[in-house]
Amino acid sequence: NAGVMQNPRHLVRRRGQEARLRCSPVKGHSHVYWYRQLPEEGLKFMVYLQKENIIDESGMPKERFSAEFPKEGPSILRIQQVVRGDSAAYFCASSRQVGGNQPQHFGDGTRLSIL
Amino acid sequence: AQSVSQHNHHVILSEAASLELGCNYSYGGTVNLFWYVQYPGQHLQLLLKYFSGDPLVKGIKGFEAEFIKSKFSFNLRKPSVQWSDTAEYFCAVNVGNTDKLIFGTGTRLQVFP
User: Fold this and answer.
1) With contact defined as beta carbons under 8 Å apart, do A40 and A46 qualify?
2) How far apart are CA A22 and CA A67, in angstroms?
3) How many A/B residue pairs have CB atoms within 8 Å?
4) Do A91 and B43 touch, CB atoms closer than 8 A?
5) Residue A58's closest chain B neighbor by CA?
6) DSSP B97
7) Would the N or C end of chain B have less CB density within 10 A of its end CB?
8) Could you tell me which of A49, A32, A37 has the C-alpha nearest to residue A86?
9) Along the 113 residues of chain B, how does pLDDT read in single tens digits?
10) B69 touches chain A (CB under 8 A)
């Protein structure tokens, strides 16, 4: 009974490198959400995707960040040219359908550290 | 813009004490309300949710929450906490038919035996 799978659990990058975070939703879920949790803060919405479509990216920084959810394979959150301020925990969640009242299931998160 | 406030940042209790964690949101329309718990090193787990109907919602592990529309509140309660309840608790809302969750900053609960 696999839940949302995120990998890697921990990722260390040097400034200027690229970070790729992966998320496989619960089987049968076609809606994926990415959230970021900065130290001592709550989770902040970044982006909502369905298969091959970005539905809402209102929480994504305008530069260096991108997300995709291809027809096959996991959703990817990509951060180019990472900076110290990107250090955070990145959580992925999935749900079965839209409508605002479907609970989202969360993964264990990827903790990104920038040296 | 919608927002969620959790005024208790850090709560320390002894086992068997009663718990109430505050959550207020700002939005005048239809809301769906959630409490999530994050045990140390683990992912967020849904404790309970409110969509409609009875404003007193029962969740897992003996938790409950009451939706008071006039106060824009959804406080979490448990009559008698256990050491295993030590965790961070997040209140969240989504509004209308949007799917993104808006989280509060969380409340860290420490329960001592």
Assistant:
1) no
2) 10
3) 68
4) yes
5) B100
6) T
7) N
8) A37
9) 778 999 889 999 999 999 999 999 998 778 889 999 999 888 889 999 998 899 999 999 999 999 999 999 999 999 999 999 999 999 999 876 667 899 999 999 999 99
10) no
